[in-house]
Amino acid sequence: MPQSGDIFIATLNRASLEWGTFRRRPTRNRIMGERYIPIRRREAVRIGIYNSNYGNGLGINIFNARSTDNLYKGQLKAAGCKNKGDGFAKQFQGNGDLRALYPWFTQRHAQVGDQVQIRWTSNVDIELTFISNHQ
After folding, report:
1. 3-class secondary structure for the chain?
2. What is the domain-level CATH number for residue 88?
3. Which of 3, 33, 39, 92 could serve as a FRET partner for 13 with CA atoms 20 to 30 Å apart?
């Protein structure tokens, strides 16, 4: 389970910035504006970030999030998994709103290669810091 002080940096890729429209297979309709923050497996394992369908015994898979620039405030859900049955999350997405991160990423002019630092301030609260890698 995440603890206060846990931290990792996620690098944004094309899929995380174009989730709703960038698909290898047409499993559902394309939806503009869907975004997510990727979680690398090693970070999910190290910190104990489980996907929303698995649970971690404490039911903590939804986190109160705010950005250090005060442009984003909302709930993010740890979701998805790379390996069926292992339960580790592969992304943070808006809780009930897959477009929740769109305004923040748009305001920050997010591009492939930019990063987001995720820092826990408690076991249910996270702080997001956008790191631009473009001039």
Report:
1. CCCCCCEEEEECCHHHHCCCCCCCCCCCCCCCCCCCEECCHHHHHHHCCECCCCCCCCCCCEEEEEECCCCCEEEEEEECCCCCCCCECCEEEECCCCCCCHHHHHHCCCCCCCEEEEEECCCCEEEEEEECCCC
2. 2.40.330.10
3. 3
2 inside domain: no
Residue range 18-37, pLDDT digits in tens: 886 666 666 656 677 889 99
Task: Provide the edge-to-edge strand list for the sheet that holds 125-131.
Answer: 7-11, 115-120, 125-131, 62-67, 73-79, 91-94, 37-38
Q: Which residues contact 53 (CB under 8 A, 6 or more apart)?
A: 79, 81, 87
Tokens read off for 107: 């305001």
This model's pTM is above 0.90: no
What is the number of structural domains in the chain? 1
Whole-number Å distance between alpha carbons of 21 and 34: 8
Mean of pLDDT values over 72-96: 85
